Amino acid sequence: MKCWICGAENAATREHLAKASDLKVLFGKPSQAKPLFFNASDQPSRPRRRNVKVGSLKSDTLKFAHRICLGCNSKRTQPYDYAWEHCSGELRGAVPRLLGAGSFRANWLFPHDTRRCMRRVHLYFVKLFGCLVVEGDIPIDVAPLAKALVEEQPYPHIYLAFGHLPLPVVAAGGSDVHTAELNGQVAFASWFYHVGDLAVNVMYALPGEQREGLKVAWHPSMGAQRLRFSRFGD
Ligand SMILES: [Zn+2]
Q: Is the full-model pTM beyond 0.90?
């Protein structure tokens, strides 16, 4: 299988759909006796998976079926993984305050090298979104996403919105990917990644798309000043 990021033929590792560190924080170490619940999208290539019981963080249920190569899964994208791990922990620990304020400053999350760290958070979701696109055969060209990941540059069409999304059960994972097409091309796609009540709305939007969700979204080109923290699902 070919790695969609670098094109290498020996794509042998599978990316986690939800970050193992996020799952660990939320559930501790799952076991067969104390499983965690996992949600995943219902892409055409896969059956619907809602609140799937998982007994181990190494379970294949938690990973994309499509593979990326070891170099891309480790060295290349680890800085992005770490940036999200940090961001996720800080945001989760401050949800009540963030809901009260409605926003947060990027340099509160990352006091040093703020722009680069925020760009890495963006790239973490570019990677996950690319995996979803490949996995679900969504008609979006992943070559520019791969290029952004390789060059550590922002990808122009992916926006993130952070916020609180209350869920009926303690769960982690992702929603379905909802897409809207224009002239046979995906013009807008929306996907929620969630760790407990913390949610990230990952949006793919071509220029000219004016969707409600984009109003509270952030992109690295906007700089790393103040980011909105929303109440999703209201
Ligand atoms: Zn690769």
A: no
